Amino acid sequence: MAAKAIEQNSHSVREHREKALEVAIGREVRALRRKRDITVSELSGATGLSIGMLSKIEHGNISPSLTTLQTLANALSVPLTTFFHRFEETRMAVHTKSGEGLALERQSTSESYQYTLLGHIGANASGVIVEPFLITLTEGADDFPTFQHGGIETIYMLEGEIDYRHGKEIYSLKPGDTLFFDTDVPHGPKALIKFPARYIAVICYPVKP
Protein backbone atom coordinates (compact mmCIF):
# COMPACT_ATOMS: atom_id res chain seq x y z
CA MET A 1 0.00 0.00 0.00
CA ALA A 2 1.47 3.28 -1.07
CA ALA A 3 2.25 5.77 1.64
CA LYS A 4 -0.24 8.58 1.82
CA ALA A 5 1.28 12.01 1.35
CA ILE A 6 0.90 14.33 4.29
CA GLU A 7 -0.10 17.82 3.26
CA GLN A 8 0.41 20.82 5.46
CA ASN A 9 -1.18 24.15 4.78
CA SER A 10 1.39 26.73 5.92
CA HIS A 11 -1.23 29.46 5.74
CA SER A 12 -3.43 27.47 8.10
CA VAL A 13 -0.53 26.98 10.52
CA ARG A 14 0.18 30.70 10.53
CA GLU A 15 -3.50 31.48 11.13
CA HIS A 16 -3.45 29.13 14.13
CA ARG A 17 -0.34 30.86 15.54
CA GLU A 18 -1.88 34.28 15.06
CA LYS A 19 -5.16 33.20 16.67
CA ALA A 20 -3.24 31.85 19.66
CA LEU A 21 -1.48 35.20 19.98
CA GLU A 22 -4.76 37.13 19.76
CA VAL A 23 -6.26 35.01 22.55
CA ALA A 24 -3.14 35.42 24.70
CA ILE A 25 -3.19 39.20 24.24
CA GLY A 26 -6.91 39.34 25.05
CA ARG A 27 -6.50 37.38 28.26
CA GLU A 28 -3.63 39.59 29.35
CA VAL A 29 -5.56 42.80 28.65
CA ARG A 30 -8.55 41.51 30.61
CA ALA A 31 -6.38 40.34 33.52
CA LEU A 32 -4.58 43.69 33.74
CA ARG A 33 -7.83 45.63 33.55
CA ARG A 34 -9.40 43.56 36.33
CA LYS A 35 -6.24 43.75 38.43
CA ARG A 36 -6.54 47.53 38.35
CA ASP A 37 -10.29 47.33 39.03
CA ILE A 38 -11.12 49.15 35.80
CA THR A 39 -14.34 48.55 33.90
CA VAL A 40 -14.40 48.17 30.12
CA SER A 41 -16.22 51.48 29.96
CA GLU A 42 -13.50 53.21 32.01
CA LEU A 43 -10.74 51.72 29.84
CA SER A 44 -12.65 52.88 26.78
CA GLY A 45 -12.69 56.42 28.14
CA ALA A 46 -8.96 56.29 28.94
CA THR A 47 -7.92 54.98 25.52
CA GLY A 48 -10.50 56.34 23.11
CA LEU A 49 -11.21 52.77 21.94
CA SER A 50 -14.84 51.74 21.70
CA ILE A 51 -16.33 49.30 24.21
CA GLY A 52 -17.09 46.94 21.33
CA MET A 53 -13.47 47.03 20.15
CA LEU A 54 -12.16 46.37 23.65
CA SER A 55 -14.56 43.45 24.05
CA LYS A 56 -13.33 41.92 20.79
CA ILE A 57 -9.70 42.36 21.88
CA GLU A 58 -10.31 40.77 25.30
CA HIS A 59 -12.06 37.79 23.70
CA GLY A 60 -9.31 37.30 21.12
CA ASN A 61 -11.64 37.95 18.20
CA ILE A 62 -9.44 40.51 16.43
CA SER A 63 -5.76 41.21 15.94
CA PRO A 64 -5.10 44.66 17.47
CA SER A 65 -2.66 46.95 15.70
CA LEU A 66 0.63 47.96 17.27
CA THR A 67 -0.76 51.46 17.78
CA THR A 68 -3.77 50.04 19.65
CA LEU A 69 -1.55 47.85 21.81
CA GLN A 70 0.69 50.82 22.66
CA THR A 71 -2.39 52.85 23.62
CA LEU A 72 -3.56 50.05 25.91
CA ALA A 73 -0.08 49.64 27.39
CA ASN A 74 0.04 53.36 28.22
CA ALA A 75 -3.43 53.32 29.79
CA LEU A 76 -2.61 50.24 31.89
CA SER A 77 0.91 51.50 32.75
CA VAL A 78 2.72 48.40 31.50
CA PRO A 79 5.40 47.71 28.85
CA LEU A 80 4.03 46.65 25.47
CA THR A 81 5.51 43.16 25.83
CA THR A 82 3.38 42.47 28.90
CA PHE A 83 0.59 41.49 26.50
CA PHE A 84 2.71 38.63 25.12
CA HIS A 85 3.57 36.97 28.45
CA ARG A 86 1.04 34.16 28.03
CA PHE A 87 2.39 33.42 24.55
CA GLU A 88 6.07 33.73 25.32
CA GLU A 89 8.31 30.68 25.27
CA THR A 90 10.59 30.39 28.29
CA ARG A 91 13.98 30.60 26.65
CA MET A 92 16.65 33.19 26.07
CA ALA A 93 17.09 32.55 22.35
CA VAL A 94 14.29 33.06 19.83
CA HIS A 95 14.69 31.67 16.32
CA THR A 96 12.12 33.00 13.85
CA LYS A 97 12.10 31.46 10.37
CA SER A 98 11.61 33.64 7.32
CA GLY A 99 7.93 34.47 6.95
CA GLU A 100 7.01 33.18 10.39
CA GLY A 101 7.06 36.43 12.33
CA LEU A 102 3.82 37.52 13.99
CA ALA A 103 2.09 40.35 12.12
CA LEU A 104 0.84 42.99 14.54
CA GLU A 105 -0.07 45.92 12.32
CA ARG A 106 -2.77 45.51 9.70
CA GLN A 107 -4.51 48.19 7.70
CA SER A 108 -8.20 47.65 7.06
CA THR A 109 -7.88 48.47 3.37
CA SER A 110 -4.42 47.27 2.37
CA GLU A 111 -1.25 45.49 3.34
CA SER A 112 0.82 48.62 2.79
CA TYR A 113 1.97 49.09 6.38
CA GLN A 114 3.11 46.01 8.27
CA TYR A 115 4.78 45.36 11.63
CA THR A 116 6.13 41.85 12.15
CA LEU A 117 7.34 40.82 15.58
CA LEU A 118 10.44 38.67 15.06
CA GLY A 119 10.58 37.51 18.67
CA HIS A 120 10.96 39.01 22.10
CA ILE A 121 12.74 38.35 25.35
CA GLY A 122 11.03 39.41 28.54
CA ALA A 123 12.55 40.92 31.63
CA ASN A 124 15.81 39.32 32.67
CA ALA A 125 18.49 40.14 35.20
CA SER A 126 19.28 43.36 33.34
CA GLY A 127 15.74 44.63 33.84
CA VAL A 128 15.24 45.20 30.12
CA ILE A 129 12.62 43.93 27.66
CA VAL A 130 13.73 43.64 24.01
CA GLU A 131 11.51 43.50 20.89
CA PRO A 132 12.85 43.19 17.32
CA PHE A 133 10.47 44.14 14.50
CA LEU A 134 10.62 43.86 10.73
CA ILE A 135 8.72 46.85 9.34
CA THR A 136 7.58 46.94 5.73
CA LEU A 137 6.14 49.97 3.95
CA THR A 138 4.81 49.62 0.42
CA GLU A 139 3.05 51.89 -2.07
CA GLY A 140 -0.07 53.32 -0.49
CA ALA A 141 1.39 53.71 2.99
CA ASP A 142 0.78 57.37 3.78
CA ASP A 143 -0.99 57.52 7.15
CA PHE A 144 1.88 57.06 9.57
CA PRO A 145 1.26 56.87 13.33
CA THR A 146 3.45 58.67 15.85
CA PHE A 147 4.90 56.65 18.71
CA GLN A 148 6.09 57.76 22.12
CA HIS A 149 7.09 55.40 24.93
CA GLY A 150 9.87 54.62 27.36
CA GLY A 151 13.14 53.07 26.26
CA ILE A 152 15.50 53.30 23.31
CA GLU A 153 15.26 52.11 19.71
CA THR A 154 17.65 51.22 16.92
CA ILE A 155 16.58 51.23 13.27
CA TYR A 156 18.62 49.57 10.53
CA MET A 157 17.47 50.26 6.98
CA LEU A 158 17.36 47.23 4.66
CA GLU A 159 15.86 48.56 1.42
CA GLY A 160 13.95 51.51 0.00
CA GLU A 161 14.13 55.03 1.43
CA ILE A 162 12.08 56.87 4.04
CA ASP A 163 12.09 60.15 5.91
CA TYR A 164 11.90 59.36 9.62
CA ARG A 165 10.93 61.94 12.23
CA HIS A 166 12.28 62.15 15.76
CA GLY A 167 10.93 65.17 17.58
CA LYS A 168 11.51 68.16 15.31
CA GLU A 169 14.26 66.45 13.29
CA ILE A 170 13.74 64.56 10.02
CA TYR A 171 16.27 61.90 8.99
CA SER A 172 16.61 60.47 5.48
CA LEU A 173 17.19 56.72 5.84
CA LYS A 174 18.63 54.63 3.00
CA PRO A 175 19.87 51.00 2.92
CA GLY A 176 22.67 50.52 5.43
CA ASP A 177 21.72 53.59 7.50
CA THR A 178 21.20 53.30 11.25
CA LEU A 179 19.20 55.53 13.56
CA PHE A 180 19.54 55.14 17.34
CA PHE A 181 17.28 57.27 19.54
CA ASP A 182 15.40 57.94 22.76
CA THR A 183 11.78 56.78 22.37
CA ASP A 184 10.45 59.24 24.94
CA VAL A 185 10.44 61.71 22.05
CA PRO A 186 7.58 61.42 19.48
CA HIS A 187 8.85 59.44 16.49
CA GLY A 188 7.81 57.48 13.42
CA PRO A 189 7.97 57.44 9.60
CA LYS A 190 7.31 60.82 8.02
CA ALA A 191 7.29 60.01 4.31
CA LEU A 192 7.91 57.05 2.02
CA ILE A 193 10.46 58.20 -0.56
CA LYS A 194 11.31 54.93 -2.32
CA PHE A 195 9.21 51.81 -1.94
CA PRO A 196 9.11 49.10 -0.88
CA ALA A 197 10.90 50.18 2.29
CA ARG A 198 11.97 47.61 4.87
CA TYR A 199 13.85 48.09 8.09
CA ILE A 200 14.65 46.34 11.33
CA ALA A 201 13.62 48.16 14.52
CA VAL A 202 14.90 46.87 17.86
CA ILE A 203 13.12 48.42 20.83
CA CYS A 204 14.37 48.12 24.41
CA TYR A 205 12.03 48.94 27.27
CA PRO A 206 12.92 49.37 30.92
CA VAL A 207 10.96 47.14 33.28
CA LYS A 208 8.60 49.21 35.38
CA PRO A 209 8.72 48.49 39.12
Distance between the termini: 63 Å
What is the domain tally? 2
Which percent range describes the beta-strand content? 25-35%
The CATH superfamily title of the largest domain: Jelly Rolls
How many distinct beta strands? 7
Class computed from helices, strands and strand pairing: alpha+beta
> Total helix count?
4
CATH architecture of the largest domain: Sandwich
The first-level CATH class name of the largest domain: Mainly Beta
What does the main sheet amount to? 7 strands, antiparallel
Descriptive account of the structure:
The chain has 209 residues and is an alpha+beta fold. The protein folds into 2 domains: 13-84, lambda repressor-like DNA-binding domains (434 Repressor (Amino-terminal Domain)), CATH 1.10.260; 102-206, Jelly Rolls. 25% of the residues lie in helices and 31% in strands. It has 4 helices and 7 strands; from the N terminus they run ααααβββββββ. The protein has helices at residues 10-35, 40-47, 51-58, 66-76; strands at 102-105, 113-117, 128-137, 152-166, 169-173, 178-182, 187-206. Strands 1, 2, 3, 4, 5, 6 and 7 form a 7-stranded antiparallel beta sheet that branches. Strand 4 (152-166) and strand 5 (169-173) form a beta hairpin. The termini are far apart. The model is unreliable at 1-18 and 105-110 (pLDDT under 50).
